[in-house]
């Protein structure tokens, strides 16, 4: 299991504490320091069964600078979103937890966290 983690994020810290309490084995990826590649973003999106615009943090300063609120949300637009997320990992919603069995969640609530350790 791997958690895309930002130590400054309270949701990330809560997710880490939950994993610790559940006795889960995981590795921490400080994704702001070790940004995912475009291929990794695509793979995680597939595992999450989400579109890139569903996990972009539109309130981030870089999102406003890039004007993501004006970007299209069609299959043809996916590449632009994915490239931006790989180049600017602060855009990625957190924490993302990927399990060894292929499951993945955006672990922002207890239900999601329970689903990944169960």
UniProtKB/TrEMBL annotation:
<keyword id="KW-0560">Oxidoreductase</keyword>
<dbReference type="InterPro" id="IPR006660">
    <property type="entry name" value="Arsenate_reductase-like"/>
</dbReference>
<dbReference type="Pfam" id="PF03960">
    <property type="entry name" value="ArsC"/>
</dbReference>
<dbReference type="InterPro" id="IPR036249">
    <property type="entry name" value="Thioredoxin-like_sf"/>
</dbReference>
<dbReference type="GO" id="GO:0008794">
    <property type="term" value="F:arsenate reductase (glutaredoxin) activity"/>
</dbReference>
<protein>
    <submittedName>
        <fullName>Arsenate reductase family protein</fullName>
    </submittedName>
</protein>
<comment type="similarity">
    <text>Belongs to the ArsC family.</text>
</comment>
<dbReference type="InterPro" id="IPR006659">
    <property type="entry name" value="Arsenate_reductase"/>
</dbReference>
């Amino acid at each position: 299991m791997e958690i895309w983690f930002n130590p400054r994020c309270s949701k990330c810290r809560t997710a880490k504490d939950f994993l610790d309490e559940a006795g889960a084995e995981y590795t921490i990826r400080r994704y702001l320091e070790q940004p995912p590649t475009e291929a990794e973003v695509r793979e995680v999106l597939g595992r999450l069964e989400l579109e890139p615009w569903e996990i972009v943090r539109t309130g981030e300063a870089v999102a406003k600078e890039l004007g993501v609120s004006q970007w299209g949300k069609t299959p043809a637009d996916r590449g632009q979103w994915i490239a931006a997320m790989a180049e600017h990992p602060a855009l990625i919603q957190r924490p993302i937890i990927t399990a060894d069995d292929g499951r993945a969640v955006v672990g922002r609530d207890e239900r999601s966290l329970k689903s990944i350790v169960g």
